[in-house]
Design a protein that fits this description.
This protein is of the alpha+beta class and 121 residues long. The protein has one domain. The protein is 40% helix and 23% strand. Strands 2-1-3 form a 3-stranded antiparallel beta sheet. Helix 1 packs parallel to helix 5 and helix 4 packs parallel to helix 5. The chain is elongated and about 45 Å long. The mean pLDDT is 88.
């Protein structure tokens, strides 16, 4: 599961979460963060109740969700072992490399880079 630190950075950078059954997230219990999975009964609650809770939750996208979010923004992406490589065919002919402890953290760093570049433009 994605670390809470990078999950928070993704949220702060503007990653929008459209909650779906099975999504991973963190919720705060007193002074510590707990890992959780959005259960089917959670998604069946009234929409306004879910959205009130989500404001305090931090989405922790899975690898395929991270890669899809990068591709959705027009980037080509390759992910393997502890690396993620991305490039935008219309912005650069050079691949950007992101290395981390594992594939999911590397992909999260790549998405964070994409999101931060978008807000800077």
């Amino acid at each position: 599961m994605l670390s809470i630190e990078i999950a928070k950075k993704l949220k702060d950078a503007g990653l929008v979460w459209e909650p779906a059954f099975g999504d991973l997230f963190y919720c705060q219990d007193d002074d510590r963060w707990e890992k959780s999975v959005l259960a089917e009964q959670d998604t069946q609650e009234a929409t306004h109740q879910i959205h009130e809770c989500i404001a305090d939750w931090v989405f922790a996208p899975r690898l395929e969700q991270l890669l899809a979010a990068i591709e959705k923004r027009g980037y080509k992406v390759e992910s393997m072992q502890d690396a993620c490589y991305i490039f935008h065919p219309q912005k650069s002919s050079r691949w950007q490399e992101f290395l981390a402890e594992n594939r999911i953290e590397a992909a999260a760093q790549a998405l964070l880079w994409v999101l931060e570049r978008r807000t800077a433009e």
